[in-house]
Amino acid sequence: MLAPIFAGKGDVPMTERFTYGEWIRLVTGAPVLATAAASLDCTVDRSIDIGTHTVFFCAVQALHLGSACSGLVYHGRAYHRLPQQHA
To answer: Which domain holds residue 31?
Structure first.
């Protein structure tokens, strides 16, 4: 899984993290994961510091939709798949 790599777990240096997974570039040139269920390519309009966090307000420039898949959540120090729902 890519999440632990990008969370800094393990011994993968920052400069090598994008060598894992398949990445494509959209309008802004930012890398997005090709196999993600959905990716938003945005430009930052404004940012506000709130306490120890920064909230970013962004304008969507492009959208990439992957194949339908079940959701994934992180809870209790583990990943869990959500059941796939059909409309």
So the answer is: 3-81
Amino acid present at 82 = L
In a domain, residue 49? The reply is yes
Q: Residue 75's domain is classified under what CATH number? A: 2.30.110.10
pTM exceeds cut of 0.85: no
Cite the beta strand spans of the chain per DSSP E.
23-25, 31-33, 38-50, 53-65, 72-75, 78-81
pLDDT tens, residue order, the chain (87 aa): 788 898 888 889 989 999 999 999 999 999 999 999 899 999 999 999 999 999 999 999 999 998 877 788 889 988 888 887 776
